[in-house]
Specification:
The protein is an alpha+beta fold. It folds into three domains: about 140 residues, D-3-phosphoglycerate dehydrogenase, domain 3 (60s Ribosomal Protein L30, Chain: A); about 60 residues; about 290 residues, 2-methylcitrate dehydratase PrpD. Helix 12 runs antiparallel to helix 18 and helix 16 runs antiparallel to helix 17. It is globular. The chain starts with 11 loop residues before the first helix and ends with a helix.
Length: about 525
């Protein structure tokens, strides 16, 4: 069931609950930064020239300035991580270090909305050209190196091998556990289970069938040698079967999934989840306590205002739902101000999960129970892992329903477990949540992650909590989650504008005027 933008075996840490990144967009900042890091690893030296090309007519052509995509690509080529606070200044810092940077928009041989070409040049005549796509939620796919086909997602240790002849069996013979993913002409793309030892490097480079090799480091935390090749589950049906046959709840299934995916111990998985929980809480506190400066500056900070109005009894709604809405806005406002967030599952929808989770935890008076909240993230991750395989996190392909909508479905399932519900009820809550927002467009005003993204995060948090209440009151979903996920994908792909950020609110007169004003101000990076 391979679909455009879907992921065969996503990592909960790297793709579903991560990465930890600066805002404002995981597909337009974290993903491109990953492509830049892969390009740096392939060239194998410090770049002196970086040439970037965005696909004419694609999503990035009109949004890369507001989303700092060019900065992210350069930051990745310089070796920075997605959580590096210098990313918005990457162009300035690169040029001050003597690195030449050019950015163009031109036709590229791809119909993917997030296609990027990079040419990196080093000292002497060292040069590499790569083509790749940002796949949503920070995931990437590097598809060619110097015109030869390759397959690299940035989540595994890889080895590029340039062959002297057609004999490629020598590589797997010299590297037990290695797997050839692609061969095009002289270029061989190999997934390797561990970093090459000095002895392995020497044996490979001296082999008569091999011209040269280049190890490629992963962008995110790499799997261990015991990592599984296939996902523990790929559907809600399989989740339910495993839960019943092994007497496991959703968070335990999420933990087992990631241990299998990464080849990690329980302690290693939990350490990563704990870090994400800390970043989520810090972004919430920042959004409520600080005066934020937004990248585009077209909105008024609202999360703290809504919470203040609630405390003064000036809201029609009240309680946990309004608090969750305020929290979701606050986190997503940190994202819009280029602050540090957890893309769970995307930066555009990053406020939904923490907003609903922290508000519910306060309502249940368990906000200090770290292990319980970490389990909730793992439960949400289990649903997100199925979502990534069955749909996509790329709004440019399937709309905002796969960003804030996906986050809402994930947290709805987690909140059911938090309240003592069954796995069946968790799946029902996720299903109802997605049914409520089916078809939601991706249409950022002026190409910025401010309108309507921030308030849609508020809607997502409220939607999730409401659906949890409905299910826990004894009202199941008529439609199974797998069928709703299929409907989300088909609805997104059948839209006339294909949800690539060029329709809906993005083409209103006000949006066009704001976009012109933003471009006229220039880019201080």
């Amino acid at each position: 069931m391979k679909r455009i933008g879907s992921t065969h075996h996503p990592s909960i840490i790297n793709t579903v609950l991560g990465p930890v990144t600066l805002g404002p967009s995981s597909s337009h900042l974290a993903g491109p930064l990953g492509l830049g890091r892969l390009a740096r690893s392939i060239i194998g030296c410090e770049p002196q020239r970086i040439a970037i090309a965005f696909n004419e007519g694609g999503s990035l052509a009109g949004t890369y300035r507001g989303h700092r995509t060019d900065c992210a690509l350069v930051a990745g080529a310089l070796g920075w991580g997605s959580d590096d606070e210098r990313i918005p200044r990457a162009l300035i810092e690169a040029r001050s270090a003597g690195v030449q940077v050019t950015v163009e928009v031109e036709p590229l041989d791809s119909d993917h909305p997030n296609t990027i070409r990079m040419r990196l040049s080093g000292a002497g005549e060292i040069e590499v050209e790569v083509m790749g796509t940002s796949e949503g939620g920070g995931a990437v796919l590097l598809s060619s190196v110097d015109g030869y086909q390759t397959v690299m997602d940035g989540q595994h240790r890889m080895l590029l091998v340039w062959l002297q002849d057609e004999n490629d069996s020598c590589v797997t013979r010299l590297l037990p556990g290695a797997k050839v993913l692609c061969k095009d002409g002289p270029l061989l793309t190999v997934k390797i289970p561990a970093t090459l030892t000095p002895q392995q490097r020497e044996e490979l480079t001296q082999h008569p069938a091999i011209c040269r090799i280049q190890p490629v480091d992963p962008v995110g935390p790499a799997p261990g040698e015991g990592a599984g090749d296939d996902p523990l589950f790929a559907s809600a049906t399989e989740i339910l079967d495993l839960a019943r046959s092994h007497d496991l709840n959703l968070s335990e299934l999420g933990l087992q999934y990631e241990m299998n995916r990464q080849g990690w111990t329980e302690e290693e998985v939990r350490a990563q989840v704990d870090r994400m929980l800390d970043v989520m809480r810090a972004s919430l506190e920042q959004g409520l306590s600080e005066e934020l400066k937004f990248g585009g500056g077209i909105v008024t900070q609202g999360g703290n205002r809504l919470l203040d109005a609630l405390s003064r009894g000036q809201t029609l709604g009240g309680g946990v739902m309004t608090r969750a809405a305020a929290y979701a806005m606050a986190v997503n406002e940190v994202n819009a101000s280029l602050g540090l967030i957890v893309a769970a599952p995307t930066a555009g929808g990053c406020g939904v999960l923490p907003g609903a989770l922290f508000a519910t935890a306060e309502e249940m008076e368990i906000e200090g129970e770290r292990e319980t909240l970490a389990d909730a993230l793992l439960a949400a991750g289990a649903i997100g892992a199925v979502f990534a395989q069955r749909v996509t996190f790329l709004a440019e392909l399937c709309g905002c329903q796969v960003e804030s909508g996906a986050g809402a479905a994930m947290v709805a399932a987690a909140l059911v477990e938090l309240r003592g519900g069954t796995v069946t009820q968790s799946l029902d809550a996720a299903s109802l949540t997605l049914q409520n927002i089916l078809g939601m467009e991706c249409d950022p005003v002026a190409g910025l992650m401010e309108v309507p993204c921030i308030t849609r995060n508020a809607l997502g948090a409220v939607n999730a909590i409401l659906c949890v209440d409905i299910v826990m009151a004894g009202v199941p979903s008529v439609l199974p989650l797998d069928e709703v996920l299929d409907a989300v994908y088909e609805t997104g792909r059948l839209r006339p504008v294909q949800c690539n950020g060029t329709g809906g609110l993005a083409i209103t007169p006000t949006s066009k005027r704001l976009a012109e004003e933003f471009l006229a101000k220039g880019d201080d990076s």
